[in-house]
Amino acid sequence: ISASGTDGGAFYDDTAVNSAIATNGAAIAADIDGDPTNEIQIISSSNSSITTTLNANGKDYDLTIAAISGGMGGLIVDNSITASDLAPDSVDSSEIRFDAVGSSEIRTNAVTSDEIDDDSITNIDINSAAAIDGTKINPNFGNQPIITTSGLSVGDDILLNGNMVIADYVFEKYFLGYSKLNADYEFKSLSEIENFIKKNNHLPGMTSAYQAKKDGYWNLSASNLKNLEKIEELFLHTINQEKQIEKLKSENNLLSQELKSLKQQVEAIKAMISAKND
């Protein structure tokens, strides 16, 4: 606090006042006489205002507040400081006491996500009854996996993004003899698959139950693509079996016709022998 007189003088530069302070420190600190002319007075206010009065010499001193400083123990009158009184970034988080600002004191949309430090809000800070609408949440997990210890319920499509290889390489390999999609893929016969299953107790290319237990997870993306591979293989084996069945049916028809012809020939021979004997 500074005070300047109508004569242009400032009492904090007055040598006489400084000398009086030095020699009468105890009396000044006590300020028990109430005389405003012999020392610096302590000025207090209960309603945020300061009233100036004429001193004994008839000089009017204007009191102006040069700066306000305080701490958590200081008292600020309600509504005495508004948002327009504060410069941007003039108050940081270390200057605000815990629970000093309640939700009712924050205007809607006053705080945006850009103004909240990462990891500054934890689960304990969110009321269990907050009921945040899902439409207000736009998560971006980046490369971080989503981990849940409970079930996952999805009411819409699940889209798999990324560099994936669809199992159409099965058809390429079977019909063309090679695959551009997966050059390492080999189409196995049913006998090869049977031998593999007898030895390993799971389908070729599929993660075994023991491996999944060891890993502690089941990769739905990889298994879904592998399932498509097995479905395409099954279709090819089924088509091949169908061809074999049709071939056998054709051969069976030929054999039936030949058998019928042989029976007719046998009957003709028997008739000829019988006629000769007669």
- Relative strand content: under 5%
Overall structural class, as computed from helix and strand content, comes to mainly alpha
Helix content: 25-40%
Tally of helical runs: 6
Number of strands: 2
Distance between the termini: 155 Å
The geometry reads as rod-shaped
Task: State the major sheet.
Answer: 2 strands, antiparallel
Radius of gyration: 48 Å
In what order do the strands lie side by side in the largest sheet?
A: 1-2
Low-pLDDT runs of 5+ residues are 1-13, 64-72
User: Assembly type of the shown chains?
Assistant: single chain
Succession of helices and strands: EHHEHHHH
| Average pLDDT metric | 77
Features:
278 residues, mainly alpha, rod-shaped
Report what the structure shows.
This protein is mostly helical and 278 residues long. A two-stranded antiparallel ribbon has the order 1-2. Helix 3 packs parallel to helix 6. It is rod-shaped and about 170 Å long.
